[in-house]
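FAQ

Q: What does a record look like?
A: Structure on top, sequence underneath. For example:
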């Protein structure tokens, strides 16, 4: 029962970390005219640092709930292995949030320049790959 409680609490804490990182990425990629959103880099850095610290604290809490004793070398090695795997997964979740936001911005740009074949954005390899993928999906959807 302790394991289930620890995993559920870890999941909730990671959800908070990913939500904060997603907010930072969304704020960074949004447009603003006035207000505190002018310093987008600071907002992104602050939210990512907070999310990474939150992930680390969630892992420490998970190990505490699991009551991992560090008296013997085997228990110490198990705790180190669990902590390193969880830190790796948490960092990956937070970093993937920024990658998703970058991808969404690129898709928006490609859609804006789809009807302008002479532009540099339209001829970019990533946009061409997106256009090809969309055309394939459209053919599949239409049954052709």
């Amino acid at each position: 029962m302790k394991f289930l409680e620890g995993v559920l609490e870890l999941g909730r804490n990671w959800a908070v970390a990913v939500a904060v990182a997603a907010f930072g990425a969304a704020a960074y990629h949004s447009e603003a005219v006035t207000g505190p959103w002018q310093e987008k880099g600071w907002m992104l850095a602050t939210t990512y640092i907070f999310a990474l610290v939150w992930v680390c604290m969630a892992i420490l809490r998970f190990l505490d709930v699991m009551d991992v004793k560090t008296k013997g070398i085997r228990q110490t090695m198990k705790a180190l292995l669990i902590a390193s795997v969880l830190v790796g997964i948490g960092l990956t979740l937070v970093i993937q949030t920024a990658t998703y936001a970058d991808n969404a911005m690129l898709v928006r740009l490609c859609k804006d320049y789809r009807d302008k074949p002479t532009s540099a954005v339209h001829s970019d390899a990533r946009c061409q790959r997106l256009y090809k993928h969309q055309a394939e999906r459209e053919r599949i959807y239409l049954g052709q």
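Q: Is there anything notable about this one?
A: The radius of gyration is 21 Å.
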